[in-house]
Amino acid sequence: MEKLSNYINGSWTISQENNLVDVLNPATQEVLGKVPMGKATTADVELAVKSSQKAFISWSQVPVIQRIQPLFKLKQLLEENKEELARTITMECGKTLGESRGELQRAIENVETACATPMLMQSEFSENIAKGVDEFMIRQPLGVCACIAPFNFPGMIPFWFLPYAIACGNTFLLKPSEKVPLTMQKVMGLIEQIGLPEGVINMVHGGKETVDALLEHPDVKAISFVGSTEVARYIYAKGAANGKRVQAQGGAKNPVVVLPDADIDTTSRIITDSVFGCAGQRCLAASTIITVGDQKGGIKEALYEAAAKRITGYGLDENVEMGPVITQASKTRVQQLIEKGVSEGANVLLDGRNSAVSGFEKGNFLKPTILENLDLGGELIKTEIFGPVMSLVQMNTIDDALQFINGNNYGNMACLFTSSGAHARRFRNEANAGNIGINIGVAAPMAQFPFSGWKDSFFGDLHGQGRHAIEFFTQTKVTVERWLQDWTRKF
Ligand code: NAD
């Protein structure tokens, strides 16, 4: 198995790093590729930034309407190659084919939205703000913009940034997650065909050393990061200390509140899809399910039934509803967290530990787990599990639930299930989270809206996607001009 190449200045370039780490299929442990990781990737970063910086000089001067033309071609190629890309995502990341197709659709929608950049970048002009004086604001690109991506959406997350960055006139340098580098490797093969000048998009593989080189490089002007909170906090601090614009999306622990007036069938179906979809490895996965008041309809039983019948297996099988978690270490961590919950007094209603899948005995499989009676003062209630575990909690009132949500360190998403408009309206107003779902289990904003995490789920001001992306990838310049009529020669 050959080591993965970087894509620099329009060519596939061999990394200067010889330390190689296996990329494993989480269902089979088959080695899919070898990714360079180590100090020598710093030299790869140097090469890529040089190329990005050179390309920026001319790309930033290309009219915006021409800058978006390659995006139309990219949309077409992503659509034509969707099935192959979906299989690659499933093989390296473990999710089901349906989930892989879904994330690619979201990637394509971001490309489409970025095609509106000629309008989204339009500026403001005020005439005659003083006698003979006009004032206007324009948006100009920043320069080299780098993106550091996580493992859980290899085909989607780079697209929260990439199409907007280049449409605004920047150049873009991607470092994919070392756990899932193959999807963007394939996407770069498509990007090669869309007619972009050399160096407008570059890709460098690697890990921490590669990231640090990006954070320290004076020619990198902006960093878009998505990953765990610990690393997001580090990236934000180090990037800012080095004078960069940073948006850093972090982890999550998403509460979902079920009121007694919620429809049981749809609610239980939607919540189990949210908790167990992508094997719980979504930053918008529902985690703590808070049932409120006197639940006469049997929500607990309905959740149990929906979870217990979920088919776990290799995602390439179309019948499978839940794939493995990303690594053996991740599986062990989730099992230990379940044990931690038990040690804190939780009852295991449904136990998905040690659940091998026939034919895939080496896979990192866990089956759906449901814990109940969690200690609200314990550790597990606060910890992001990032695996297929539902925590059930009972509370007396919606006030208790809101207080619990607002005491949460994370603020990625909060959801409410109800048939009451008044409760929904109050929840939307009072819940301290950046993405709110009402009768929705995964409140993922569409491309036109910002992906609005709060608190420890986001460090920065401007989020990915839509108008926020346009603002993040441009800096404003205001010009004040005086032209008095008396100065003009009369004709
Ligand atoms: P991670 O933080 O381990 O890795 C993310 C990226 O950072 C990778 O490219 C990795 O190479 C790099 N990295 C890792 N450790 C580093 C270090 N010490 N210094 C510098 N760079 C480092 O995250 P992950 O495990 O790939 O992804 C899962 C996490 O991402 C979860 O916490 C999840 O909630 C979060 N996530 C958040 C969002 C969101 O929108 N808020 C979306 C997806 C995932």
TrEMBL record:
Gene3D superfamilies: Aldehyde Dehydrogenase, Chain A, domain 1, Aldehyde Dehydrogenase, Chain A, domain 2. Its EC number is 1.2.1.27. InterPro entries: Ald_DH/histidinol_DH (IPR016161), Ald_DH_C (IPR016163), Ald_DH_CS_CYS (IPR016160), Ald_DH_N (IPR016162), Aldehyde_DH_dom (IPR015590), MeMal-semiAld_DH (IPR010061). Keywords: NAD, Oxidoreductase. One of its GO terms (molecular function) is oxidoreductase activity. PROSITE patterns: ALDEHYDE_DEHYDR_CYS (PS00070). Pfam families: Aldedh. It is an enzyme of class 1 (oxidoreductase). Residues 12-478 form the Aldehyde dehydrogenase domain. NCBIfam families: MMSDH. This is methylmalonate-semialdehyde dehydrogenase (CoA acylating).
